[in-house]
Amino acid sequence: MTDHAGRLAARRAETLTTIEALSGRLDGIIDSSRYETNDDEHDPEGVTVAFERAQTAGLLEMARAELRALDAADARLAAGTYGVCVRCGRPIAAARLDALPAAETCIRCAGRR
Question: Domain total for the chain?
């Protein structure tokens, strides 16, 4: 296993753990809200529960997006194009890949978004 493959596998494992934890947390929030009748307008806890649910759902979607990006990076690794910018074709700096293993673009192209 190359350094890139190892880094991607480790990040993927971390992301799967995060997804599992956030999914469990969201399920818990949803389950607990089924048994309560929070009135957001009159119950100060109602707003907090709604915010917590939305925040957890947002974090879960971000983790799922990262997993998709890591899967795409694995495909680029298998194709021999990992570490090559998908926009300009130049190499992606090792430091960028260390920080963002699923990076598709070099720092220069990333700044052009």
Answer: 2
